[in-house]
Write a structure and sequence with these properties.
The chain is mainly alpha-helical. Helices cover 47% and strands 11% of the residues.
């Protein structure tokens, strides 16, 4: 049975890399009919915040991907302590009574990269260790990394292949802090063992931790999960994406608030470090789940392209526009509702259903809705340059003549695509102008701009009464 977990710490908003890790775990679970577990790793009480946790859940709910089981590490502290004690009693850990300041000085003197242990504490007799602990002296519980003989810790990563590290290069890392709380290593491995996690899928920056975790699993007598480490997400300059340095660029909510479809954002994240091997780019989550495999994950880091002017990756924008265009009209109309409300507009029943097919080619994100559809809702229109009413190779008199004739024709025409098409083309022929010269003044008068959705469909949505009012207003602008 495949069981995977996503284990965020509530110390900041949902990072783009964390979101991709969640998605890859979800894809693997669903591809293999496995179990997807959400575990909140909240044992670092000093850094946890409710705001961060809320942000994580907000981001996950926006993605729209489910999970099967949910846990909170802070509710499992007894398990962590029990398993840490088991490791200690088996002789794989020891108490280190060195005060924190002195330990830091020793590590600094030795060199943080080369510090392995404090021999005085590692070799402290058990009787002395028990006496000091019983007296209430604080201690850190450290894992006793094998030194004699030195051995290699090996595993095969599902992405990066064979991995090996000598125990001579691994420090005696902490399992419990001096306050009795578990470290990341202890809590994570205890929970992974207890929850029967079969595969750990996480960022490549955790790869070095895996050697320590294998030691913990061995000490617990547990079978270590399989590991798959994901390539990192980096900035255009090659730096690792970080919340502190890159701010909103790395937040999932930045894309949500920019008007992205969650399915398009998922598609974008999947292509950061994975490819389907068949040159496809736009894919639904179900299409991706059907073909997802570790073999498709790249080993090289993936670049998220952004600039100081725009935090959104252009590839993400393109994918979102493709997903938007592919939405069924009724679905698109429904998803436009909150954006209309956010702009302060109150569409009439069925109005968005009429507007949606006219504007979807003009939107890259839902945020574009307010700028491409405003003329359907604003009355009067914002001011525009009257010169735009004059078609190319025309003059003000021609534009006025067109609008006068259009008023007469549109007062009686059938307000459907075909009815408007026939009436306005016939009117152009009657007054001796080309179709384009007829249409431009009407389009600008009705929409306040030259570039707008198809004219006949737009007029049909605006309706006869509003269209005639706007033509009158445009005529007045020309005459003034």
């Amino acid at each position: 049975m495949f069981r995977v977990r996503f284990a965020p710490s509530p110390t900041g908003y949902l990072h783009i890399g964390s979101a991709r890790t969640f998605i890859f775990n979800w894809l693997f679970a669903r591809r293999h009919d496995g179990t997807m577990i959400l575990r909140i790793d909240d044992t670092d009480a000093g850094r946890n915040t409710q705001t961060s946790e809320d942000s994580i859940f907000d981001g996950l709910r926006w993605l729209g991907l489910d999970w099967d089981e949910q846990y909170r590490q802070s509710e499992r502290l007894d398990l962590h302590a029990t398993l840490a004690s088991k490791i200690f009693e088996a002789g794989h850990a020891y108490r280190d009574f060195t005060p924190a300041e002195e330990a830091a000085e020793k590590a600094h003197a030795t060199g943080a990269a080369t510090w392995l242990c404090n021999p005085d504490m590692r070799e402290l007799p058990r009787e002395e260790s028990d006496r000091r602990a019983a007296a209430g002296e604080p201690f850190v519980l450290r894992f006793r990394v094998p030194r004699e003989p030195v051995r290699d810790i090996t595993f095969t990563d599902e992405v990066y292949g064979a991995q090996s590290k000598s125990t001579a290069d691994i420090e005696d890392f902490a399992l419990l802090r001096s306050n009795g709380l578990p470290t990341y290593h202890m809590a994570s491995c205890a929970d992974d063992a207890d929850l029967r996690i079969s595969h750990i899928i996480r960022g490549q920056d955790h790869l070095t931790n895996t050697f320590k975790h294998i030691l913990i699993f061995d000490a617990l007598g547990a079978t270590a999960p399989r590991f798959a480490h994901l390539p990192l997400l980096i900035a255009p300059d090659g730096a690792k994406l970080s919340k502190r340095k890159h701010g909103p660029v790395v937040s999932v909510t930045t894309y949500r608030d920019a008007g992205f479809l969650p399915e398009a954002y998922i598609n974008f994240l999947c292509l950061l470090g994975w490819n389907p091997k068949d040159d496809r780019e736009k894919m639904s989550i179900n299409e991706i789940a059907a073909i997802f495999s570790f073999e498709g994950i790249n080993r090289s880091n993936a670049v998220v392209n952004f600039s100081d002017e725009d935090p959104i990756d252009p590839k993400a924008l393109w994918l979102n526009s493709q997903h938007l265009y592919a939405l069924p009209v009724d679905t698109l109309a429904s998803r436009l509702e909150p954006w209309a409300a956010g702009a302060g507009w109150s569409p009439a029943p069925g109005q968005l259903l009429q507007i949606a097919p006219l504007i979807r080619e003009r939107m890259k994100t839902f945020r574009d809705f307010a700028s491409v559809a405003d003329f359907f809702f604003l009355e009067p229109l914002p001011p525009f340059d009257p010169a735009e009413l004059v078609p190319q190779k025309g003059d003000t008199a021609m534009a006025a003549k067109v609008l006068e004739r259009a008023k007469t024709v549109l007062a009686a025409a059938e307000f459907t695509h075909d009815g408007l098409d026939q009436a306005l083309r016939a009117a152009a022929a009657e007054i001796g102008v080309k179709a384009g010269q007829m249409f431009q003044p009407i389009r600008v008068a009705a929409c306040g701009r030259k570039v707008a959705p198809p004219l006949f469909e737009t007029l049909a949505v605006l309706g006869r009464e509003l269209t005639l009012v706007r033509l009158d207003r445009a005529l007045a602008m020309l005459r003034s």
